[in-house]
């Protein structure tokens, strides 16, 4: 089984993560998102009960089965929410220069134009006079003048309307909230029970936060790959440590932009993607990518450029949040994002790589993958086929920029779902354990031919192991020619 979207005319290398919500929870809406190009569905643990999340995951998987597609599920932990409480009489207008107090001892519903409560009771211990606090994604700016026990006395530097439950960031980072709350601990168990493919940790500060979450997931019986959401200033300082401890890096540009400044984001995005790819990890670029499509059927030119630049930077996936969860045009948002990705993928720099030219390899399957991509980029090859158990070879292959499609032939459904997020990789249901090498060759050729991936006379590269059905043992590559419905040795190309 090969996803219909993998036909050459429609093939897209960059993957799309679509957040599920009220606008995308029915069987019909889920089917439309898949047909439009969604590769991964994000379930936000900030919303709903465990029962509701379970029903949503099952509906998504059922829609994928009916569409004959593989779709991965990404669970996103809420993390510590550092927010103001509520106002007694509705939103208030903060005037520039006015005094405004954040009071952790105030009743949760007693906020006024002079003060408001805070959900994070340790906040007074994290700030000092002279600090700058940013509320509502940086729209409200407060200068801290004094800290008196439970009260943080501020002067409004940039005012405006302030409503209930808006987030609080400290400019430059430094808030000490732990990455995992009690709710997150419960949600990790839910993620394991639902057999989610990926689990995202919000606000990690260092690699130990990711190690801790991974350990809890494994204790609960989960096998999801771990996603680190880079959204704290401290995460940038500890970036390589976090990348090393994770499988996927999400550039969560909302809170990150507030803490470090929006002007720093473009260059930082490129650096994070570059670092993650060098360390063989997958990247997702997220937040406000098609924000205007929450209420409009077409994106702005700036949004299309934002998506395109992420693709050119080398991201594996781009993500929709409110656009697909609560927006009026979720299907159109996925389709517009897919179109922007495909256009950017025609830029030559997205197909050229100088990756790890001077590096030594620690794993045989990594060495095979690097050799495969070097050969593929210097020969006229129609496709690359990785016979894989865990999907690791497909991930190694996808770290090299190329315009050549990579097909992960595997018998494991979990592996087929996982590779959906890897750039340029497409899953194929294939069991190599019950066939001889000759039968396997014919089956691979027939699969590729029947779906129009290759034609007679094309050359492909095939990677695999001497021992079929054993994970992590890819140790050979072959360059073969598609001939008479089979794969034949070849001595010359072209």
Oligomer: single chain
- Order of adjacent strands in the largest pleated sheet: 1-2-3-12-13-14-15-16
Number of helices, counting only DSSP H or I runs of 4 residues or more: 16
Q: What structural class is derived from the secondary structure elements?
A: alpha/beta
Kindly provide the radius of gyration, computed on alpha-carbon positions and rounded to a whole number of angstroms: 24 Å
Q: Could you explain how this protein is built, in words?
A:
The protein has 494 residues and is of the alpha/beta class. It contains 16 helices and 22 strands. It has helices at 27-36, 50-67, 123-126, 182-193, 207-219, 233-237, 239-244, 253-260, 265-278, 301-313, 322-325, 330-344, 364-376, 392-398, 413-418, 437-450, and strands at 15-19, 40-44, 72-76, 92-94, 99-103, 115-116, 132-135, 140-148, 151-158, 160-162, 168-170, 198-201, 225-230, 248-252, 282-286, 317-320, 383-387, 406-410, 425-429, 459-464, 476-483, 486-489. The protein has an eight-stranded parallel barrel, surrounded by six helices. Strands 6-5-9-8-7-11 form a six-stranded mixed β-sheet, with helices on one face. Strands 19-18-17-20-21-22 form a six-stranded mixed β-sheet. Helix 1 links the parallel strand 1 (15-19) and strand 2. The longest helix is centred in the first third of the chain and has 18 residues, at 50-67. The protein starts with 14 loop residues before the first strand and ends in a 5-residue tail after the last strand. The model has no long low-confidence stretch (mean pLDDT 91).
């Amino acid at each position: 089984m090969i996803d219909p979207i993998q036909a050459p005319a429609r093939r897209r290398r960059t993957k799309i993560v679509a957040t599920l919500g009220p606008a995308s929870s029915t069987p019909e809406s889920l089917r439309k998102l898949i047909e439009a190009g969604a590769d991964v569905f994000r379930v936000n643990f900030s919303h709903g009960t465990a029962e509701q999340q379970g029903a949503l995951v099952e509906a998504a998987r059922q829609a994928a089965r009916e569409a004959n597609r593989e779709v991965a599920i990404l669970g996103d932990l809420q993390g510590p929410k550092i927010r103001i409480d509520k106002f007694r009489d509705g939103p208030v207008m903060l005037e520039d220069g006015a005094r405004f107090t954040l009071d952790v001892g105030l009743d949760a519903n007693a906020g006024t134009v002079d003060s408001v409560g805070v959900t994070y009771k340790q906040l007074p211990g994290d700030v000092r006079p002279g600090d700058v606090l940013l509320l509502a994604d940086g729209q409200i700016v407060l200068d801290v003048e004094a800290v008196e026990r439970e009260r943080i006395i501020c002067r409004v530097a940039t005012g405006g309307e302030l409503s209930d439950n808006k987030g609080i960031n400290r400019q430059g980072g430094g808030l000490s909230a732990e990455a995992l709350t009690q709710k997150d601990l419960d949600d990790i168990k839910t993620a394991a029970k639902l057999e989610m493919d990926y689990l995202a940790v919000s606000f990690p500060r260092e690699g130990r936060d990711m190690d801790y979450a991974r350990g809890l997931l494994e204790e609960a019986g989960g096998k999801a790959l771990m996603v680190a959401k880079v959204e704290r200033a401290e995460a940038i300082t500890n970036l390589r440590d976090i990348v090393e401890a994770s499988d996927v890096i999400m550039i969560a540009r909302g809170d990150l932009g507030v803490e470090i400044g929006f002007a720093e984001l473009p260059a930082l995005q490129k650096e994070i993607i570059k670092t993650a790819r060098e360390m063989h990890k997958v990247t997702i670029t997220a937040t406000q990518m098609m924000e205007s499509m929450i209420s409009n059927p077409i994106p702005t030119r700036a949004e299309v450029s934002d998506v395109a630049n992420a693709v050119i930077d080398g991201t594996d996936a781009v993500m929709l949040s409110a656009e697909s969860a609560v927006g009026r045009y979720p299907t159109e948002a996925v389709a517009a994002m897919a179109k922007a990705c495909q256009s950017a993928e025609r830029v030559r720099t997205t197909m050229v790589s100088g990756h790890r030219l001077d590096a030594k390899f620690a794993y045989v399957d990594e060495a095979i993958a690097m050799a495969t991509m070097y050969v593929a980029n210097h020969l006229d090859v129609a496709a690359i086929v990785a016979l894989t158990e865990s999907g690791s070879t497909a991930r190694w292959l996808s770290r090299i920029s190329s315009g050549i499609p990579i097909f992960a032939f595997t018998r494991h459904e979990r592996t087929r779902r996982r590779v959906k997020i890897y750039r340029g990789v497409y899953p194929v249901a294939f069991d190599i354990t019950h066939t001889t090498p000759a039968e396997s060759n014919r089956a691979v050729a027939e699969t590729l031919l029947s779906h129009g991936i290759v034609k007679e006379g094309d050359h492909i590269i095939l990677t695999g192991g001497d021992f079929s059905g054993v994970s992590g043992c890819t140790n050979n590559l072959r360059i073969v020619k598609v001939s008479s419905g089979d794969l034949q040795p070849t001595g010359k190309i072209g």
